[in-house]
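User: I'm putting together a teaching handout on how sequence relates to shape, and I'd like one worked example. Could you take histidine kinase from Neolewinella litorea, show the sequence you're using, and then write out its predicted structure as tokens right after it?

Assistant: Happy to. First the sequence, then the structure tokens directly below it.
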Amino acid sequence: MESEADKIERYRKKLEVAERKVRILEDMIEDRTRELHLKKEENLELELFAYLTSHDLQEPLRTIISFVEILEEDYSDKFEGEARMALDYIRDGADRMSLLIKSLLQYSKVGKNRTKRMVNTNKVMQQIINGLQKSIRETEAEISYSPMPHVNVFEIEWTQLFQNLIHNAIKFRRKGVAPKIHLGVKERENEYEFFVEDNGIGIEERFREKIFVIFQRLHSNDEYPGTGIGLANCKKIVELHGGKIWLDSEVGVGSTFYFTINKSLAT
């Protein structure tokens, strides 16, 4: 009969294997992304990459998560020191991978198998603010918006667009400064120009194109957790509606994100 010591040793070895798998999965995503950008492939291939990668990773990730859950339930009190750190590392890595896969799938599905409908953007704003109440309370954020138009859009993506920009404005706040966020719109002859203004940390001019590229991040995961997909998703959604997205920013003062949608496509 296997002793407790033998069981723990066996699970330690499996733990090392699981840890290596997490690292391999992370390297796989980085390598595929790097290759894709070096080849400068079309956006359609990037979508296919996102879809296939997310599906390729789901099964090994489920295996890792299941294994970690077994270890945590049955042997959590047996792991100490380096073994406990390794277990925590695997759990954190698996959680990050799970979030990344969900974000990749979301990115690959933008505008797919959906039809446009007339949407009251004011209601979208209120729904987003209601859903962010926990973050708003914790950060003492102030969010305001001017009257918004009814537009003919992909409703889910339209909501994701504003949600990502507002969420970023809350997340990338200055230390000790409550976020102040204002959203508005200007109606022009052929387009609507929306903006999201904040008083956050700001972005250096040299990074203002980079932030819209998938997987490109300016901060470590410890500083600001995330996947590096949110703003790439915003860009894709805006372009889906015949518009463009850009920003003005000053480090230590704040940023204003602008995006347009073509009136002929949105009315």
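A couple of points you could highlight for students: The domain at 117-266 is CATH 3.30.565.10 (Heat Shock Protein 90). The first helix runs from residue 4 to 39.
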